[in-house]
Structures are given as C-alpha cells and as structure tokens.
C-alpha cells in the first residue's frame, strides 16, 4: 500500500523558512517523478516543484529561486526547502506521484505565512 506522510508545515513570518518532508512507504521514490503541489482554500491545486527519477528538478515560476526540492533515497523521503516565504505561499502542501496504475497523494501539511 502506497502512503505519503507530509510534515514540517507551520506558521512562519514573511521572509522565513520551512522544510517540508514527505515520507513514502510502499513505493521506491527514486524510481518515480515526485511532485509537490499546494492548495489554498478556494483555489485549485497548483504545481510547485518536481524531482524526476533521474534527479532533475523543475519549479513553478512563482517559487523559482526560493524553493528547493530534493530526496534522500536511503530514507525514501522527498523534501521541499522553502526560503524567503511570502504570504501568498500560504497553502496546504501535498506530495504526489503518478504510476502506471494511478496517482497517489498525501494528506498534506499546512503552511501559513503571516506576521
């Protein structure tokens, strides 16, 4: 059974940093493209970042230069380092992947950027 458990969210002031973690079970993350998405209340889910099975990365324009996605294959965990946070980064952040069978989503972790 594939499961993703996100953690690391919280309340942070503008300009601050957080590191999100996505611990995976039932799947070997280094074999798949792993994504972070976010969803603010009332809005659609928005792509944030991807790390490919080959280790390449890409980012939404809104987070480029501020966020960094990475993975630890030994821990089977994906990370999202978020720096220079802005109020518009406030959202629930989810990790996800697509396999040949279906997509899998974690329940998410809340990030709130506010003074």
What does this structure look like?
There is one protein chain. This protein is 0% helix and 51% strand. It is an all-beta fold and 115 residues long. The strands form two sheets. Strands 2, 4, 5, 6, 9, 10 and 11 form a seven-stranded mixed β-sheet that branches. The chain has a four-stranded antiparallel β-sheet with strand order 1-3-8-7, with no helix packed on it. A hairpin with a 4-residue loop joins strand 9 and strand 10 (103-105). It is globular and about 40 Å long. The mean pLDDT is 96.
Average the pLDDT over all residues and give the rounded result: 96
Could you give the count of β-strands? 11
H/E element sequence: EEEEEEEEEEE
Q: CA-to-CA gap between the ends?
A: 40 Å
Largest sheet: 7 strands, mixed
Question: Unreliable segments (pLDDT under 50, ≥5 consecutive)?
Answer: none
Share of residues in strands:
over 45%
State the helicity in percent bands.
under 10%
Secondary-structure-derived class: mainly beta
Overall 3D shape? globular
- Tally of alpha and pi helices: 0
Radius of gyration: 13 Å
Topology overview:
Elements: E1 3-7, E2 10-12, E3 18-25, E4 34-39, E5 46-51, E6 57-59, E7 67-72, E8 77-82, E9 91-98, E10 103-105, E11 109-113
Parallel strand pairs: 2-11
Antiparallel strand pairs: 1-3, 3-8, 4-5, 4-9, 5-6, 7-8, 9-10, 9-11
Defining traits:
mainly beta; 4-stranded antiparallel sheet
Brief write-up:
It is built from no helices and eleven strands.
């Amino acid at each position: 059974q594939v499961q993703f458990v996100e953690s690391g969210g919280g309340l942070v002031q503008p300009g601050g940093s957080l590191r999100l973690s996505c611990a995976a079970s039932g799947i070997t993350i280094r074999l798949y493209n792993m994504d972070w998405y976010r969803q603010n209340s009332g809005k659609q889910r928005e792509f944030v970042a991807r790390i490919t099975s080959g280790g390449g990365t890409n980012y939404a324009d809104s987070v480029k230069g501020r966020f960094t996605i990475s993975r630890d294959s030994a821990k089977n965990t994906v990370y999202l380092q978020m720096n220079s946070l802005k109020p518009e980064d406030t959202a629930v952040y989810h990790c996800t992947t697509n396999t040949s069978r279906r997509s899998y989503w974690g329940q998410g972790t809340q990030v709130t950027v506010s003074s």
